[in-house]
């Protein structure tokens, strides 16, 4: 009777093979054998897997993480909001002209009430930072793992008397501190000294105070208060909240639409803030709409709308390790009919956009090709990120 020979594969070969597998497969393999679980959980393997995912993103396919929702209206006029996320994997065929894609819907059991929104505010290395109702959470969509962060010590309930301190959420960012080698969340808070009328409903005085901020570190699982250098006359009591943030090489960036418009940046390592001027534009009729990353540079878009047509301009900052730099107009796209806004701009000059009826379309600025993507309709403005799948733990 012949004996079956057991072949032992060297560990370095096992690591090399595993590091090229998707997170879903690795999560299953962790349950098969303790030795595999030890390998997959090791920091060196997590880093190797992330590097492989980034290399694959640059060389072949792009994954777009889309946050969307669907509202159900009931006969009694009550409503319930279902939150969905979708991963859209985009690639080109061999002649690099035809765009292909597949859609993977995600169902992540966030702790939310029926009418809560899940807003995506930051992204780094496969982890997203979201606000779900009143809670801030970190989530890895590829592994379906999430973590609720401790409550803020700076955001206070509304004053109950005639006088009091009113605090307002201003902005939220998430990224990696390359110096300390840890992930951080930064939250910016507006503060006002308030005096109300006797009925407690209208302001008599509403005086802006210095802004505060707090930084959360995953290692400590706690917030700490820091000072930030923002002029209160610019961030006035009538200003809108910051846009969602984008992260790049240790810095978080927001487009702030206040009395003046600018890019607000935050250095995660040194925990200092700065303001970056937007480029001077002589043309009229354009409004500043949002920011994203394109080719490893902070990028913002503005739009000009004349019913039913929309024209988009995309400007790229000549990035210099977080320091102020110049702007270059990269693209003018359109005019498009019934197009609301661009979602993101990615490699091979593809501009992903949303139409007025919630459909997603891809436009190639070089070839002029225009293609609607067959994914579920988006019914409100939602955040997208150029996503890299990772197995980084948030718990």
TrEMBL record:
Species name: Malus domestica
InterPro entries per the UniProt record, alphabetical: F-box-assoc_dom_typ1 (IPR006527), F-box-assoc_interact_dom (IPR017451), F-box-like_dom_sf (IPR036047), F-box_dom (IPR001810), SCF_F-box_component (IPR050796)
Start and end residues of each F-box domain: 9-49
The protein's name in its UniProt record: S-locus F-box brothers-like protein
UniProt cross-references to NCBIfam families, sorted A to Z: F_box_assoc_1
Domain of life from the UniProt record: Eukaryota
């Amino acid at each position: 009777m012949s004996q079956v020979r057991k072949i032992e594969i060297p560990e370095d070969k096992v690591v090399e093979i595993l590091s090229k597998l998707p997170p879903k497969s690795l999560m299953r393999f962790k349950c098969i054998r303790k030795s595999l679980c030890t390998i997959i959980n090791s920091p060196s393997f997590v880093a190797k897997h992330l590097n492989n995912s980034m290399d694959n993103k640059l060389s072949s396919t792009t994954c777009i993480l889309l946050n969307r929702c669907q509202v159900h209206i009931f006969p009694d006029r009550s409503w319930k909001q279902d939150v969905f996320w979708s991963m859209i994997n985009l690639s080109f065929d061999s002649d690099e002209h035809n765009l292909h894609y597949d859609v993977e819907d995600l169902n992540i059991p966030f702790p939310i009430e029926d009418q809560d929104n899940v807003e995506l505010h930051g992204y780094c290395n496969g982890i997203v930072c979201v606000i779900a109702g009143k809670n801030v959470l970190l989530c890895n969509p590829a592994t379906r793992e999430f973590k609720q962060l401790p409550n803020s010590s700076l955001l206070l309930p509304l004053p109950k008397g005639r006088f009091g301190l009113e605090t307002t959420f201003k902005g939220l960012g998430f990224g990696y501190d390359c110096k300390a080698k840890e992930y951080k969340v930064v939250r910016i808070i507006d503060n006002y000294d308030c005096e109300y009328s006797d009925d407690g409903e209208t302001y008599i005085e509403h005086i802006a105070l210095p802004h505060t901020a707090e930084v959360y570190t995953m290692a400590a699982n706690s917030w700490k208060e820091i000072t930030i250098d923002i002029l209160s006359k610019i961030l006035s009591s009538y200003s809108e909240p910051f846009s969602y943030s984008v992260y790049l090489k240790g810095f978080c960036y927001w487009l702030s639409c206040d009395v003046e418009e600018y890019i607000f940046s935050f250095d995660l390592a040194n925990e200092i803030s700065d303001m970056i001027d937007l480029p001077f534009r002589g043309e009229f009729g354009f409004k500043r709409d949002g920011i994203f990353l394109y080719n490893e540079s902070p990028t913002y878009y503005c739009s000009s709308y004349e019913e039913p047509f929309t024209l988009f301009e995309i400007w790229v900052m000549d990035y210099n390790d977080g320091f102020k730099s110049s702007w270059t107009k990269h693209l003018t796209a359109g005019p498009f009919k019934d197009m609301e806004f661009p979602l993101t701009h990615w490699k091979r000059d593809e501009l992903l956009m949303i139409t007025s009826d919630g459909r997603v379309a891809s436009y190639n600025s070089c070839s002029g090709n225009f293609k609607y993507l067959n994914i579920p309709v988006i019914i409100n403005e939602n955040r997208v990120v150029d996503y890299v799948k990772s197995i980084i733990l948030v718990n």
